[in-house]
Amino acid sequence: MNLSMKGIVKSFGANDVLKSVDFSLQEGEICALLGENGAGKSTLMNILGGVLPADRGTIELDGKPVTFASPAQSLGAGIAFIHQELNLINDLPVYENMFIGREIKKKSGFLDHKAMYEKTKALFEKMDIDVDPGAMVSSLDASFKQIVEISRALMMNASIIIMDEPTTSLTDPEIERVFDMLRTLKQQKVGVVFISHKLREVMEICDRYTVLRDGVMVADGYVKDTNTAEIARHMVGHEVTSIRRERTKEPGAEVLRLEKLTQEPYFRNVSLSVRAGEVLGVTGLLGDGRSELFRAVFGAQGRYQGSILFEGKPVTMRTTKQALDLGIGYLPRNRKENGIIKDMNILENGSIVTLPRLLRHGLIDGRRQHEEFDRQRRELRIKMEREKDSITSLSGGNQQKVVLAKWLSANPKLLILDNPTQGVDVGAKEEIYDIIHRLSEQGVAIVVLCSEAQEIIRLCDRALVMYHGTVRAEVSGETMNEHEMMRLATGG
To answer: What are phi and psi of 74, to 5 degrees?
Structure first.
């Protein structure tokens, strides 16, 4: 099926999100749709997916004009949309999630659980997916939830599949498995719209690219004719630097020391230290134990063996409040599930950590709350309309800045950042890198947990590479390169 979208216009009040955008997709083609958060990518695809109506413009499938008033109509036309927000129900098993809205029923009218289970199992076996169809979705980690979403779209036999950031939470082997799926779909003449901020993935899997900036299509072409630097320049409107961090002063006193910290089965015998003004990277492959290790440091992982010393004094971390009182801040790995509170507005999300400090006679001092958040908003350059707007109204990069703001308002001595640029665009990454460097220059000890070697190289003074819950080695200077880190992360 061939897709053509021409002159698509969409505004929300005075905000012009799409300004006469053209987009096309040929059958059996994988086309990357790129741009910074807020560039209009999701809005354009929501129009194609029947979630939003266009103000003006046309959509044609195989040369025939179509309009979609609902996602069901779009799906009926052969278009499946895997949204950035996972549309799974945690309290149902995997196989029931696979058939939501198109359940298989017996003649009696009751659900045919066996048939749905077997069809799900057959697909998983075909795609080499190691998931029990009967497992509750709530028991899966983010990577397997994404795989279930992708599998559900595959089961619909769609002619066009829209994938919005499909690999954000996946390990390298899982990403490669997804790419194998995409190559199979290409052979079957299925077209794929691939929305991603991971430009290396775009270069590997996509045939063509289209770049949006501020609601305007600014570039398109074949992937083989470009490179990541050129695409990044189109996305942000200027050259993007990849220069390694240069330290202007030596680190200060030791802030954190771990001695033989152990919590089976997650991590064991981990010893490390980080000093004031230092940026320490901790890297490896997903599931290496680094997140659980620093959740323990933050008092959120339960009992452990070994010692934690903070500013030279032994501490036993039992609660997150205790960590906060000591001066430890923690930005969690999955912003959508653990970083933001969707039912709260921007201001409430940005000040929730310091609410106890803002209480006056049992009530929140609204003036102080506004002043403190406004200072963080200006320093972090958070792009927003009104602070009482929903946190979900912001782009991913600006949501991440709000999560940072709530911790920075607590003036931490140690800041743990787990995957700090997850799901944010090239430009927002640069801003977050600048924030991290500025904080380190101010004397904050920072730990960055990340699987992306380039991010570790760009941000950190040195890095520890973990493998199966243990620290394999420390890298710095010339040894802090992609090849060496991958070798260590895979047990080499």
So the answer is: -65, -45
Q: Which CATH architecture has domain 254-489?
A: 3-Layer(aba) Sandwich (3.40)
Burial of 483 (0-12, 13-18, 19+ CB in 10 A): exposed
Measure the CA–CA gap between 372 and 355, rounded to whole angstroms. 11
What confidence score (pLDDT) does residue 275 get? Answer: 96
Q: How do strand 160-164 and strand 191-195 relate by DSSP bridges?
A: parallel
Helix axes 172-187 and 142-155, enclosed angle (nearest 10): 10
Global pTM reads 0.62
Which of 350, 386, 394 minimizes the C-alpha distance to 369?
350
Q: CATH 3.40.50.300 region(s) of the chain? A: 3-236, 254-489
Query: What does the block give as tokens for 23?
Result: 């987009």
Predicted local distance difference test score (pLDDT) of residue 121: 94
pLDDT score at 238 = 64
At residue 276, the 3 state secondary structure works out as coil
Strands (E), 311-366: 313-315, 328-331, 359-360, 363-364
Fold classification of 3-236 is Rossmann fold (3.40.50)
pLDDT: is 380 or 63 the higher one?
A: 63
Of the candidate ranges 32-46, 80-94, 121-135, 166-180, the one whose mean pLDDT is the lowest: 166-180
β-bridge partners, 254: 275
Asked whether 211 and 219 are in contact (CB, 8 A), the reply is yes
Report whether 329 contacts 416 (CB < 8 A).
Answer: yes
Rounded to an integer, the average pLDDT of 423-450 is 85
Closest CA to 296 of 405, 418, 422: 418
